Amino acid sequence: MKILVIEDEPALYESILDYFTGEGNICEHAVNFASASEKISLYNYDCILLDLGLPDGEGLELLTNLKNSKKKDGVLIISARHSLDDRLAGLDLGADDYLVKPFHLSELKARVSAIVRRKNFDGNNIITFNDINVDVVAMKTTVGKTEVGLTKKEFDLLVYFLSNRNKVVTKNAMAEHLWGDEMDLSDDFDFIYTHVKNLKKKLSEGGAKDYLRSVYGIGYKFSDQ
Amino acid sequence: MKILVIEDEPALYESILDYFTGEGNICEHAVNFASASEKISLYNYDCILLDLGLPDGEGLELLTNLKNSKKKDGVLIISARHSLDDRLAGLDLGADDYLVKPFHLSELKARVSAIVRRKNFDGNNIITFNDINVDVVAMKTTVGKTEVGLTKKEFDLLVYFLSNRNKVVTKNAMAEHLWGDEMDLSDDFDFIYTHVKNLKKKLSEGGAKDYLRSVYGIGYKFSDQ
DNA sequence: CTTCTATAACCAAAATTTTCATGGTGTAAA
DNA sequence: TTTACACCATGAAAATTTTGGTTATAGAAG
């Protein structure tokens, strides 16, 4: 994921950059209107984090320019101004979301992810892994040309595996992803085995190879070998 | 990976401990300044999770003491204080990151992993030693192009050897790192021999040279000669 | 009411970790 | 040099933990 951070306050942009870089994203950075404008026109970003209070220009103008071009980068406004007017002005001009300072980085991340998901699944909403195709919008899964009917949990599980292909996913992570905070992590979640088993069974009935391996003591890994 | 959780609120530290233990890590725990201070001085941790609001002392002092010693444990501050000043104070004293409560456990895990990666592997997921490659995220080990399947203890042992390459590691240090304080250090841990043997066997079956030498009366050394 | 889905409970199977017994090896002192 | 002894290596078996598969039940959806 590629992100542009437009922000002049060093303490803030450093922590944002560190954070998103640490998450494995590509981050760029602009401290003023001029360099931001140049970067926006030259490159494409999955999401632009835009601070409204820039030293040499009005941040909203960047947004106007962006929208006048054909670009479709996501825009998240971050600003200390918390009046409703500012908020509406930003959203009216086509920003995807608005976050008031100060905020938690995890909050910021959640918002950015939401924007990117919304944008990406709009056009290209199919995840592919060899002969497996998953349409996340139509919630349809095919192996080769045969469709396999998955339940919701099975589907979520598959999407999670596919977006973490070739990595070991722990059972904790699976539980947190599929069941969120409702699930007490000290509970046993043996029933994950049942969902995993059902998913494997349906995939193999559809004719897929056995991509999913268990990693003893840790979790699972979805990969080629 | 060995982690120390310094936190006095039972609900929170229990879920953190459950989570990280479930991920296959060694976790220890302190509820106050005194015991935290003792553990920090006696042992080494990959990462210390430090809550600033302790009942009997100022958490930041622990950080100061740690930095004054030669230790290089990673430190992640977790705190309810979300002012920028608090944040900067912690980072100025040498903390590696700062996370504001409340947070998601997966978020915490990501931060801890990032810290450990940065410290131990130059921010890289892959550790290399001649023909040996270890991907700590995919949990995959290869010698040349052949993959060798290691168990968790073997894997941890190898990672520990590789991050202490060309140094002699004592058996005590190995035991402490792989088993933490569940293991009474007065016990004999002869079974380390077994794990070492199994690791050596699998590596040599994969075609690796015999990099691991025992150092009589001390421990082992993983190196070229 | 019927059918499908999600969770629970249970036991069997598999993998890992630890224990144990035995013999070999390095070191230092006699 | 020899000897005693602690240390290390190894193989096999026991103990423990984790996973797989079956079946049962509750609850939602149709």
The oligomerization state is: homodimer
Reading off the top of the CATH hierarchy, the class of the largest domain in chain A is best stated as Alpha Beta
Order of helices and strands of chain A: EHEHEEEHEHEHEEEEHEHHEE
Shape of chain A: elongated
* CATH architecture name of the largest domain in chain A: 3-Layer(aba) Sandwich
- The strand line-up of the biggest sheet of chain A is 2-1-3-6-7
| Parts with pLDDT < 50 across at least 5 consecutive residues of chain A | none
Largest sheet of chain A: 5 strands, parallel
What percent of residues of chain A adopt helix (DSSP H or I)? 40-55%
Q: What fraction of residues of chain A sit in β-strands?
A: 15-25%
Structural class of chain A: alpha/beta
Keywords (chains A, B): DNA-binding, Phosphoprotein, Transcription, Transcription regulation, Two-component regulatory system
Organism (chains A, B): Pedobacter paludis
Pfam family, one (chains A, B): Response_reg
Domain OmpR/PhoB-type (chains A, B): 124-224
